[in-house]
Amino acid sequence: MNEYKRDKNQTTLGEAIQRLLKAYRLDNKMKELDLVAAWPELMGPAVANRTKSIRIQQTCLYLEIESSVMREELLHGKQIIIDRMNAYAGKQVVTDIWFS
Fold first, then answer.
1. Class of domain 33-99
2. What does the alpha-carbon distance between residue 95 and residue 85 come to, in Å, rounded to a whole number?
3. 0.90 exceeded by the pTM?
């Protein structure tokens, strides 16, 4: 028998980490952190440079935008932002956005 062959009851490291995250209910938190980190990529440099703070709490995205004009523009495209973020995450993480 080859010592490098995997038994049927062994799992990959990735699968083990995913199980661990689910067991401790951290999988959603990891998705939230991924979305916050991907904000410049998702929205572009113009929006990212005017964003003072971004956080996700209980499926609500809280944004602090420096420019009132930019805030109004983003408010009109609220659903597009939600759809883009959820598509990036691969599941529904954000359901609402709060601007300040």
1. alpha beta
2. 10
3. no
